[in-house]
Backbone:
């Protein structure tokens, strides 16, 4: 076990404690930054690294701020396409949460996503990236505002009292953590998104190994996995759960190696297995596909998510090596792309 794995294990223990007793958003914010290798684990140098990386992001933004201030005059066709798509997606980002309807927050996310897309042309911007970066935005805001991911109530007077420096720090930290995460999954989003299709295929194989009857039933009903779980891979279940539950899931992902490309497949499979009996009782195609595309997870609690993670890890321990060996060529091809950062 290397140092990062050890730190991840410690963090998961902290998460268990906080769920039982109190919520410690500052701990999550700190550990995410460490586990994503954005800042060092040593407290001695954390502030210096944060200062340097935030300044680096500020210097990068200078290149693109003129474009964003006057896109019609300063953007070419490809840049305008990225800008318009992000602008369309942002109002759809977790509409149930007031935070993401605030204009300043939308502008932060617009710049963050545009800068990332420009500096990562292999994939560029893909719909769903707005969802992925929103979790970092929310978690890092808990360091500056008196709110939790549980209640998610924003005091606008408190928000308006935040300095531009504080808002920029949240944006910069979110950018770098989003980038660190995307470095490991960017190949999933290149032209044609073959990585996502491969993930769907591997998840189907997990279902076949764990519950052959469920696999046969879906086959008999002509249900293709791509019809309902493509967005599970594209958005990593962000549209299936609240941000509070996604943050808990990502606690586990950031604490494990290659979890977004591999362990996530077991989580997705176990999410489907959780509804196995209901699925087997439904044979009509339209009814079944609608159920699969809208699983009843709205009332899930942290305890439900913990049970899902625990079951997923159990299945991972039993079948992980077999699946990895069977699909090792596909899995090995999901290596991070080199970027110019």
Residues:
């Amino acid at each position: 076990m290397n140092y990062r794995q050890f730190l991840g294990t410690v963090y998961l223990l902290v998460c268990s404690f906080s769920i039982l007793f109190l919520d410690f958003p500052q701990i999550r914010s700190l550990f995410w930054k460490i586990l994503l290798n954005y800042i060092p684990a040593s407290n001695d140098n954390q502030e210096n690294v944060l200062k340097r990386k935030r300044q680096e992001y500020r210097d990068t933004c200078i290149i693109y701020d003129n474009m964003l201030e006057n896109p019609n005059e300063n953007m070419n066709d490809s840049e305008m396409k990225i800008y318009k798509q992000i602008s369309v997606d942002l109002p759809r980002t977790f509409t149930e949460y007031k935070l993401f309807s605030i204009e300043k927050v939308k502008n932060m996310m617009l710049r963050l996503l545009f800068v990332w897309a420009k500096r990562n042309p292999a994939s560029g911007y893909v719909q769903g990236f707005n969802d992925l970066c929103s979790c970092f935005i929310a978690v890092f805001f808990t360091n500056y505002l008196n709110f939790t991911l549980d209640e998610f109530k924003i005091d606008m007077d408190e928000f308006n009292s935040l300095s531009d420096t504080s808002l920029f720090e949240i944006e910069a930290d979110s950018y770098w953590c989003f980038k660190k995460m995307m470095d490991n999954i960017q190949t999933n989003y290149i032209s044609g998104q073959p990585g996502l299709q491969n993930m769907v295929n591997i998840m189907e194989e997990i279902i076949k190994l764990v519950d052959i009857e469920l696999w046969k039933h879906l086959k008999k009903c002509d249900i293709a996995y791509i019809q309902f779980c493509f967005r599970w891979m594209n958005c990593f279940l962000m549209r299936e759960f609240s941000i509070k539950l996604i943050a808990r899931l990502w606690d586990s992902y950031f604490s494990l190696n290659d979890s977004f490309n591999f362990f996530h497949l077991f989580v997705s499979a176990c999410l489907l297995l959780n509804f196995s009996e209901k699925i087997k009782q439904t044979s009509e195609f339209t009814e079944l596909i609608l159920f699969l595309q809208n699983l009843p997870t709205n009332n899930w609690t942290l305890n439900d998510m913990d049970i899902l993670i625990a079951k997923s890890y159990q299945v991972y321990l039993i079948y992980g090596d077999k699946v990895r060996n069977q699909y090792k060529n596909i899995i090995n091809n999901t290596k991070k792309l080199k970027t110019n950062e």
